[in-house]
Amino acid sequence: MALTGLKIQKYLPKTNCKECGSNTCMAFAMKLAAKKAELSLCPYASDEAKKILGAASEPPVKGIALGSDPKLKLGEETVFYRHEKTFVNQTALAININDTDFDDDIEKTLNSVKDYILERVGEILLIDMVSVTQKGDDPEVFAAVAKRAWETTNRPLVLHSDDPKALNAAAIAVKGSNSLLAAARKETSEALKTTAVENGHALAVTGESLDELVAVTTQLKQEGFNNLVLQFKTYSLAEQFQTNSIARRSALKANFKPLGYPTLSFISPGGLLEDTVSAISEINKYGGICVLPTFDPAQLVALMTLRMNIYTDPQKPIQVEPKIYPVGDPGPNSPVFVTTNFSLTFFIISGEIENSGLSAWLVVPECEGMSVLTSWAAGKFSGTSIAKFVKESGLEQQVKTREIIIPGYVAQISGELEESLPGWKAIVGPQESADLESFINSVMS
Ligand code: SF4
Predict the structure, then answer these.
(1) Which of 37, 121, 351, 420 has minimal Cβ neighbours within 10 Å of its Cβ?
(2) How far is the CA of 85 from the centre of ligand 1 (A)?
(3) Who's near 198: CB < 8 A, 6+ residues apart?
(4) Which residues contact 43 (CB under 8 A, 6 or more apart)?
(5) In angstroms, rounded to a whole number, what is the distance separating the alpha carbons of residues 340 and 214?
(6) Packed helices 164-173 and 189-199: angle between N→C axes, nearest 10 degrees
(7) CA–CA separation, 214 vs 206, rounded Å?
(8) Is pLDDT above 80 for 445?
(9) Do residues 129 and 154 touch, judged by C-beta distance below 8 A?
């Protein structure tokens, strides 16, 4: 049962030193009780407190790590909605191959997974996992395909079979990959637990009903094996959505440990649109690993973009380093633009300048990752702060021009900027980035 703030406070030092970021030990205890802080923030917690409160402050959805370098993390979630705090570990996307697929098709899919790279707002996005499904009846063939998938892609695998012997053979073949065996039922859980432990893999658990699944996870946890993932047996998108929500709610609201694990779902092939909708549902509502039936780069762009939006911490906007960026191949006579260090704004503006064929300098001062209007309203993107940044950056020694193009939405800072940056003229650019190219072509050519 979850500890209350009052009970947690009894185990804290009660010195109110504030080093954990809370004003009092009681305030910190309340945060711990609400799973909004971790005990490690208090440097003075005793060993006894760590032992007792460590379990109590564990995230309601257990963290699982797959693969080796870098580790693929799942779970550790503490909220229903990302605006309450943040979602922690994003839904992992896997591509499925079958052990009965043609050799050329397997080769093509594995190479596609290995080579797939999507760059979005400065982040490199990759496919997380490969799923190998046994459709044939030879465990050795299944194991050989699994080994090939690991060796080609270096990704952790979902080993998917109803046959414990096949899972055992594949688990041995890819020992060291830290993969996931899917899935154990009540009749096979003991044997598969041994296979998972001996070969360093995690284990997915399934059952005809939620009660049956809960019985298996409870049993395995009591036996000390906690490296688990849940695979629900559902028959429609609505049921899967509902079951994912029930599991998350049980883990968060009732601290119900048997359902406090990341989930695994296989999207049944039903056409590209239907598959995409199912995957979107998993990303939106608590999916841990989502296995896609085919590799489709266009579908992946949509899913990864959505996933990035859902899993970006709303309290920490994605941002680029504040500095002077060259766009194209600028020289001392190239024009100078200024914008904020919110990643989305930066990449849109630099992209528009690049598309126009112009080489320019882009001044990006520290704005805490906020967009133009937000940072201006917060006093982070003012004439004074831009001028200070320009002076400190050494731009004045780097360029001959004394004109700086500011975003149209903050035309009102032009006077302040010219006063704070003597000798410079502020040119008001367009409000919308989409108009930047025509602005450049008409005003600067
Ligand atoms: Fe109390 Fe520890 Fe926080 Fe200090 S750091 S206020 S001792 S909980």
Answers:
(1) 351
(2) 22
(3) 171
(4) 19, 20
(5) 50
(6) 0
(7) 9
(8) no
(9) no
The DSSP bridge pattern shows strands 323-327 and 360-364 to be: antiparallel
Q: Which amino acid is at 413?
A: I
Decide: 336 and 405 in contact? Cβ < 8 Å.
Answer: yes
Cβ of 16 closer than 6 Å to ligand 1, yes or no, is: yes
Encode burial over 287-297: b for 16+ CB neighbours within 10 A, e otherwise: bbbbbbbebbe
For residue range 282-301, list pLDDT tens digits in order: 999 999 999 999 999 999 99
Distance (angstroms) between ligand 1 centre and the Cα of 27 equals 9
pLDDT tens, 152-190?
999 999 999 999 999 999 999 999 999 999 999 999 999
Q: Using a 6 Å cutoff on CB, does residue 86 contact ligand 1?
A: no
Residue recorded with tokens 């059952």: 207
The DSSP secondary-structure symbol of 263 reads B
Dump the DSSP string for 193-230. HHHHHHHT-EEEE--SSHHHHHHHHHHHHHTT---EEE
Amino acid at residue number 403: E
* Residue 82 to residue 77: CA distance in whole angstroms: 10
Lowest mean pLDDT among 14-23, 189-198, 261-270, 436-445: 436-445
CB atoms within 10 A of CB 199: 20
Residues 268, 270: Cα–Cα separation, whole Å:
6
* Contacting residues for 347 by C-beta, under 8 A, at least 6 apart: 121, 122
CA angle 423/429/434 to nearest 5° reads 155
Atom of ligand 1 nearest to the CA of 28: 8
